[in-house]
Design goal:
The chain is mainly α and 378 residues long. It is built from 19 helices and no strands. The chain has one domain. Helix 1 packs parallel to helix 16, helix 3 packs across helix 14 and helix 17 runs antiparallel to helix 18.
């Protein structure tokens, strides 16, 4: 079982990448004060499972390839993770910082302590925080292996972990605020969403337990597929219903709604679980050939698309400004499609260049030529 390839994980990566692009497209659409609220709910609310489900996929892949009954070599594990994630994180952080300095003329980010803060908190570009959190998960892998054993042997403890996760995320999202006298404590609180793994422990451990109990997990999904669908539908309805209530009942702005209803909110956590189980169930079935190929290709390049798409969005938006285009519904959809197409093309180009220059390929994608990037990422 340790070496088996789970295609559902590849497809989920592809779907989640579409969701990440949707979230960031929604953010750009707010430049139009009259942005379409119904398209916005699709881009920003329905897609909210996209980032945390990546932690599920990563954990699932790690525990499938290195199950608890297999001897764990921490130093060897960290060496591989260093190549797969840490090197690309540093490389892309420096590239985004160089790009920022080039377009703005501001070299202050290279001064201490700003330079260290940018790297520690993943501030070079808004998507890089995911890699910072992932690196922390990797560094603490022995702890997660011990916790996985405990959860498997004590099933009810999983419910306790979920309750604690909801409570912690609620406190962090809605109550905890920066404003301390100590500079470093204030900085740590201000950027807590960019590095604090405690926000995603439950979904990461869910991936670990499901991987360890993979035959039982798939059997339960098959047997309970109706209930999985009901749970997914109920939580999705809760997300959308809460969005429209805040928008029309409480007269929140679009930005305020998405700052209230997100993946760390109580309903957001439940929705993430529902979406994870639902899409794993869907993608574990036989899919039409063109659908499977589409999601497989998206999954194959998802890592690089994730890394390059903010750069693509910046220049697509720059063109729109020059052309005086406003984010109407049609333009927003076109922006999304252009970002997807150009980011995929750029990801393919980066991978081809990496095949010609191995060290560059290692730095930008975490792999040497002829290695499957996806299998390394999980």
């Amino acid at each position: 079982m340790a070496k088996q390839h789970i295609v559902a994980l590849d497809y989920i990566r592809g779907l989640s990448m579409l969701g990440v692009l949707g979230i960031h497209t929604g953010a750009y659409s707010l430049t139009n004060p009259a942005a379409n609220p119904h398209l916005f709910v699709l881009l920003e609310i329905v897609s909210r499972f996209s980032v945390p489900i990546f932690f599920f996929v990563s954990s699932f892949g790690l525990f499938i390839s290195q199950p608890l009954q297999k001897e764990f070599h921490y130093l060897d594990f960290m060496r591989r993770r260093f190549n797969a994630v840490f090197l690309p994180y540093i490389a892309w952080s420096l590239l985004y910082m160089l790009h920022y300095t080039w377009i703005s003329g501001d070299a202050g980010i290279w001064d201490k302590p700003h330079f260290y803060e940018f790297l520690f908190f993943g501030l070079a570009s808004y998507q890089l925080y995911f890699l910072v959190i992932l690196i922390w998960f990797y560094a603490l892998m022995p702890l997660w292996r011990m916790l996985a054993r405990f959860l498997i042997n004590n099933p009810l403890s999983g419910l306790v972990l979920l309750i604690v996760q909801i409570a912690f995320n609620y406190y962090s999202s809605y109550i905890l605020k920066p404003g301390y006298d100590n500079y470093y404590l204030n900085l740590a609180v201000q950027h807590r969403m960019s590095y604090l793994i405690l926000h995603y422990v439950f979904i990461f451990m869910l991936g670990a337990v499901c991987a360890e109990l993979y035959p039982q997990f798939t059997a339960i999904l098959k047997r309970k597929k109706t209930w999985v669908t009901v749970f997914f539908t109920a939580t999705l309805t809760g997300m959308i219903g809460f969005y429209y209530y805040l928008l029309y009942g409480e007269h929140y702005s679009l930005e305020a709604t998405v700052n209230t209803i997100h993946q760390l909110s109580p309903i957001g956590i439940l929705y993430t679980i529902g979406a994870t189980l639902f899409w794993f169930t869907v993608f574990s079935r036989d899919l039409p050939g063109w659908v499977a190929n589409c999601f497989a290709r998206l999954g194959e390049y998802s890592y690089l698309i994730y890394l390059v798409h903010p750069l693509v969005m910046y220049y697509v938006f720059f063109y729109m400004e020059q052309a005086s285009l406003i984010f109407t519904a049609n333009i927003t959809i076109a922006f999304y499609a252009a970002t997807l197409a150009l980011s995929t093309g750029l990801a393919i180009t980066v991978k081809k260049i990496g095949s010609l220059i191995p060290l560059l390929g290692l730095a930008l994608s975490g792999t040497f030529p002829k290695q499957n990037t996806l299998k390394q990422k999980v």
